[in-house]
């Protein structure tokens, strides 16, 4: 019994027939091996001679631990032991502080012209404690990497946080776009009204041309348009879901596939991680043999519900995936799997 897939495409075949895709995102329930899959994808491309960047968007970074080398600091660093591969663990703390400062400046400017005698500090504190504040900062950092590093690398692989966060993060491009359109229109109406009510219209017009809030909105709107054109282009971007052969991770993937489609982001496929090999189970304990039998049930569910989307199966290794050699092994297994081999290894 191999649970062979009648329809489907391997990861290797998929990327070879979608050569133009530059941006890869991995997501899934927490603890399923998203970082492992992202590192395997990045290493596969690096082994093909391409210049690759892997970027961790997870607030709890794992690249340093996975590659067993210091990749901290929020800057791009080479991954020693794998040619052509760089990595960055994105740090948004400085960006959040910069947001706070910018927000403070804009609020003070607005309150001054609105003639409202209150301090901006309380408004800033409320805005900065909103969970979406950090998500916005992370989304902005993602856009920066895509727009600024896209020309420098052949492939960029993003290791996302748990799938709910990842979907919200990627969905911000659509939400931001709608919000910005309303904000720009509202600001235009407010500025137009100010000119009409002003006694010195020429001076008012000069001040409006320097309006920092409008400048910020237009600049952000332009960035969002560029990001949306990339994220929504199936020839440039693909999202890969990672799951374990367990009930909850499988249901999470099923649920969020439709959400990602709703944000016009192409589904690259599903990577099944942590599959226990038959030869390992047979020479193991009774517990291992029982787990192998239990695994068959969940792999059958994956075949029925996600079969055509499965791109690769990564085995459960006999030792922890730490260090360059193990990451290279993941890349090899990722690239060597075919639907004919089936889900049971």
- Say which CATH homologous superfamily of the domain at 21-89 and 153-167 and 233-321 is assigned: P-loop containing nucleotide triphosphate hydrolases
Instruction: Specify the number of helices.
Output: 13
In whole angstroms, the N-to-C terminal distance is 10 Å
> Helicity level, as a percent range?
55-70%
**DSSP strand tally:** 8
CATH class of the domain at 21-89 and 153-167 and 233-321: Alpha Beta
Largest sheet: spatial strand order: 3-4-2-5-1-6-7-8
Q: How does CATH name the architecture of the domain at 21-89 and 153-167 and 233-321?
A: 3-Layer(aba) Sandwich
SS-based structural class?
alpha/beta
Overall 3D shape = elongated
CATH topology label of the domain at 21-89 and 153-167 and 233-321: Rossmann fold
Q: Work out the radius of gyration.
A: 24 Å
Describe the structure using short key phrases.
single chain, alpha/beta, eight-stranded mixed sheet
Show the helix and strand layout.
Blueprint: H1 11-17, E1 23-27, H2 34-47, E2 52-56, H3 63-67, E3 77-78, E4 85-89, H4 93-114, H5 121-128, H6 131-149, E5 155-159, H7 163-197, H8 201-209, H9 212-231, E6 237-243, H10 247-262, E7 267-275, H11 278-282, H12 286-306, E8 310-315, H13 324-336
Helix pairs in contact: 2-13, 4-5, 6-7, 7-8, 7-9, 7-10
Question: Could you describe the 3D structure shown?
Answer:
There is one protein chain. The chain is of the alpha/beta class. The chain has a domain at 21-89 and 153-167 and 233-321: 3-Layer(aba) Sandwich (Rossmann fold), CATH 3.40.50. It is 56% helix and 13% strand. Strands 3-4-2-5-1-6-7-8 form an eight-stranded mixed β-sheet, sandwiched between helices. The longest helix has 35 residues, at 163-197. The radius of gyration is 24 Å and the shape is elongated. The termini are close together. The mean pLDDT is 83.
């Amino acid at each position: 019994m191999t649970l062979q897939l009648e329809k489907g495409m391997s990861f290797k075949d998929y990327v070879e027939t979608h050569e133009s895709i530059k941006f890869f995102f991995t997501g899934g329930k927490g603890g399923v091996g998203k970082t492992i899959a992202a590192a395997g994808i990045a290493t596969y491309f690096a082994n093909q001679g391409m210049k690759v960047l892997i970027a961790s968007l997870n607030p709890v970074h794992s690249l340093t631990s996975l590659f067993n080398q210091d990749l901290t600091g929020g800057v791009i660093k080479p991954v020693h032991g794998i040619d052509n591969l760089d990595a960055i663990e994105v740090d948004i703390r400085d960006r959040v502080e910069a947001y706070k400062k910018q927000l403070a400046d804009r609020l003070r400017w607005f309150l001054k012209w609105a003639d409202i005698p209150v301090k901006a500090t309380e408004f800033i504190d409320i805005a900065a404690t909103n969970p979406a504040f950090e998500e916005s900062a992370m989304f902005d950092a993602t856009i920066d990497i895509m727009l600024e590093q896209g020309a420098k690398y052949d492939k960029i692989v993003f290791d996302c946080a748990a799938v709910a966060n990842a979907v919200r993060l990627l969905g911000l491009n659509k939400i931001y776009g709608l919000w910005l359109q309303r904000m720009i229109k509202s600001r235009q109406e407010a500025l137009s009204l100010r000119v009409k009510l002003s006694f010195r219209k020429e001076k008012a017009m000069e001040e409006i041309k320097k309006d920092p809030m409008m400048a910020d909105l237009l600049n952000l709107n332009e960035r969002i348009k560029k990001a949306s054109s990339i994220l929504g282009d199936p020839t440039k971007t693909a999202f890969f879901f990672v799951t374990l052969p367990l009930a909850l991770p499988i249901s999470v993937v099923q649920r969020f596939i439709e959400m990602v489609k709703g944000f016009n982001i192409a589904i690259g496929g599903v990577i099944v991680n942590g599959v226990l090999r038959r030869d390992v189970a047979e020479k193991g304990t009774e517990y291992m043999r029982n787990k192998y039998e239990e695994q068959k049930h969940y792999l059958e569910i994956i075949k029925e519900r996600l079969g055509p989307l499965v791109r690769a199966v990564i085995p459960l290794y006999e030792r922890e995936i730490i260090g360059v050699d193990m990451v290279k092994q993941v890349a090899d297994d990722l690239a060597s799997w075919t639907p004919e081999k089936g889900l049971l290894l």
